[in-house]
Amino acid sequence: MNEIVAYVVIAVxxxxxxxxxxxxxxxxxxxxxxxxxxxxxxxxxxxxxVGVTIHSGITAxxxxxLICAAFVLMTSPVGxxxxxxxxxxCGVQLWEGSIMDKxxxxxxxxxxxxxxxxx
Amino acid sequence: MTAFxxxxxxxxMLSSFLCLYRIAKGPTAPDRTVAIDILGTLxxxxxxxxxxxxxxxxxxxxxIVWALMSFIGTIALAKYLQGRFYxx
Lengths: 119, 88
Fold this sequence. Notes:
The structure holds 2 protein chains of 2 kinds. Chain A has a domain at 2-76.
C-alpha cells in the first residue's frame, strides 16, 4: 500500500518536472521561463523526494530525502529571484507582449537597453 | 516495480535534454543560467530514482550535496550577471 502511494506521488512529480521543462523551452522570454521552470521543477522534485520518504519510511534514506526536500523548497525560489533580478539589471528586454514592468517603475531603467537576441 | 522506475528515468532524461536544448540555444546568458539551475534540480530527482532503484541510501547524500552546490553556483552566477554587461 505504501509502495503504491509512493509511486503515485513520484509519478505526479515526474509530470511536474516534464511540464516545467517544456515551459522552459516553449515560453517567449527569460522572465516567463523563470516562472514556469522554477516553480514546476521545484515542486516536482519535492514530490519525488516525498515519494522516496513514503516508500522507505523513517529510515536513513527517508529522513535524508525529507531534509533534501525542505532544502530544495527553500533555496530554489531564492535562486530564481536572484537570476531574474540579474537579468533585469543586466539589461535583457521583456517580451513585446508584456504589459507591465514593476521593477522598472520602482528602480528605474536598466543601465543599458539591449535587445533580447543581442549578446 | 523496476519498470516504473525505468520509465521515471526516461522521463527525467527527456526533461534534461529539454534543459540542454535551452542551454545550447538560449539567446541570452540568463537563459542559460536558469537552464543550468533547473538541470541541477533535475539531477536531485535522478539521485532519488537511483536510490530507489538500487536500494543504496548514499545516493541521498549525493542529492543533498548536489542541491547545496547547485544553489551556491546559481547565486554566484546571478551576482556575476548583475555586475556585468554582455560585451565585458
